[in-house]
Amino acid sequence: MKKFIGIAFATLLGLFILFSLFDWRGNYRAEQIIWRANKKLSKVINTPETTPDKTFEDIANDFRKAIKDFPHYPQRARVQIQMGGVYMAKKDFAKARQVFEQVFKDYPTNDVFKSEALVAIGKTYEQEGSWLKAETAYRKVISDYPLTENGLAMPLYFGNVYKQRGAREKANNAYKDAAMYYGKMAEQNQGKPIEFRAMQLLADSYLALEDWNKGVEALGNLLLTFPGSPAIGQTVQAINIVAVIQLKDYDKAQAIYESFMKKYPRHPLDKILKKVIAGLKTLKEKNVVINPKATPK
3-state DSSP call for residue 78? Predict the structure, then answer.
């Protein structure tokens, strides 16, 4: 009996390895096709007016082949979105939207893929110059897929769009709305992974508003709430830039770091923060003032 069980287990294990190998080889072949298609697209994306329609269609067909021939490829929905991008490059926005809308039919339960497709639809309207339709699509991303990266990023995106257009008042209003939204999202999702991203975007919103005091406060809260974040180094750097360069307030940065060390006395960052604090004290004693324009963006 034990021998039979051993043989059965070995057979099942062998089949698992075999199917895994098929999956790996299939994924590799799919990625080869996708890579070649993207390489072709990169050569014509900036010259749609002089590129024959057949060239775009051939590239789109490469993506179609990857979708059709490799139905179990895990990034299949994103290949569909890439195919829509071919028609966007061609300026055939109606066709692009048809391709993006297929994602909703093929992946009705995947909010991440659907949010990406809806953002892509919004981009088609934006490139067409139909901002109201684009905004409608983007707001639907926020309302329908609030816990996806796209759903979270979109409120800040509105401010960035208005800023790029030189509409500073609209941009500031959008950034204020974004800050309120992210504050609520962080509060409603305490202890969940989304809390970290919401707090990041809250800080970004205040910095976009050039509200340096609220920005450095948000960054400090981010540091104190997520001591194990992989982005902790970038958070410390941002606190230094805002407190020292924008606010010229060495004590504010020092207070944040001292609170952190008190809360997490054996943290790996402890020695580094002690050196940072010593540097801040030296800058303060020597009354060093750093011009914001002299710092890299």
Answer: helix
